[in-house]
Design goal:
Radius of gyration: 15 Å
Number of domains: 1
Oligomer: single chain
Strand content: under 5%
Distance between the termini: 20 Å
Length: 70
């Protein structure tokens, strides 16, 4: 497990950053009416931020050549 975390270090870091950004986006921008499907709940925006952070981190690591699975 620790070896996997070392390989995916950038993705894991950006996952945490994405979760924080998603939560902060919900907190300060959000949806005031509650009718927006993504922005109305903190947990959906946090999960969406985590997903985007993971995808961006995985994309960067695959383009940089540090991903040995490619």
């Amino acid at each position: 497990m620790l070896n996997w975390i070392k390989k995916k270090r950038l993705s894991v870091v950006l996952l945490v950053v994405g979760a924080l950004c998603g939560f902060l986006y919900w907190k300060f921008v959000g949806c005031s009416t509650g009718t927006c499907p993504l922005k109305s709940h903190w947990y959906t925006m946090t999960l969406y931020g985590m997903l985007m952070g993971w995808l961006i981190g995985d994309l960067i690591s695959s383009f940089s050549g540090k991903n040995p699975q490619a």
